[in-house]
Amino acid sequence: MKKPQRSWLIDFSLLAIIWGASFMFIAVAGHAIPPVGVAFLRMILGAAALFVLLKIQGLKLPTSFDAWKKTAIAGIFMSAIPFTLFAYGELEISSGLAGMVNAATPVMTVAVIMIAFREQAPNRIQIIGLTVGIFGTLVLLGIWNGFGKNDPLGIMALIAATLCYGFGSPYIRKYVSPLGLPNQVAVFMQLITASALTLPFYLAGPLLTATPDWTVIASIVTLGVLGTGFAYVLYYRVIDLAGTTIASSVTIVQPVVAVILGMLFLAETITWYELLGGAVIILGALIAQGRVRFIR
Description:
The protein is mainly α. It has one domain. It has 12 helices and no strands. The protein has helices at 2-29, 35-57, 65-89, 95-102, 105-116, 124-140, 152-176, 183-203, 214-242, 244-248, 250-265, 272-288. Helix 8 crosses helix 9 (214-242). The chain is globular and about 50 Å long. The mean pLDDT is 84.
């Protein structure tokens, strides 16, 4: 029992750091690449890195249409749509704020389970966590100011992206994990199918919005190879070892990384209510996961 737990903690910690830094890379890549291009390039680069890994390990891809269909659906909700939405949102919204909105993913997971995966019905504590998380999101957005300095469409894009993740996590647990595929294979199938579905939308518009410099190139390559390919292997592994709720809780830790890096490297600032709202969202997620209990 101790060995799997140690593996879960290591994977979880690495994932929090990698995905926390991803918000900075998304913001930098967006200086010269349109949102759908950021999504496509990070997915195809992640798929390429995983393909090399599959060849080295001698792993085979399944030929079953059912397996490809299920992983394609996972790719749409865990990659294609949310990656595009986050890249769009960060055109106007700081990477640190985007990271804090993403902390609502465990809360969104509970909400989606209540609607679409009722066999995993949430308990009373999880519903309380959902309520607290929603309140925290409203505080973070400074709802009493409208959306304040933030672009409403950008905010809605970020929230919609977390809803996609909220659907994708229980979907993976129910439909993809039972396929018994190695993590590398499942993630590669997810990314390559999502890339194929996204490519026509990328080609329909401008491929670049400015001339990319070395920071843009380095950001998109790192985002794809490390933040998408390698990170999703870790994420699937945590789902298998610890379950959907624990895996989605990585979003509780990564906002800290996102905020610190945004302030250090992108000169971003953050308001008191964004910090307070982020803390309340994290509290809601902790309650939803049963880490903070009111009733013994």
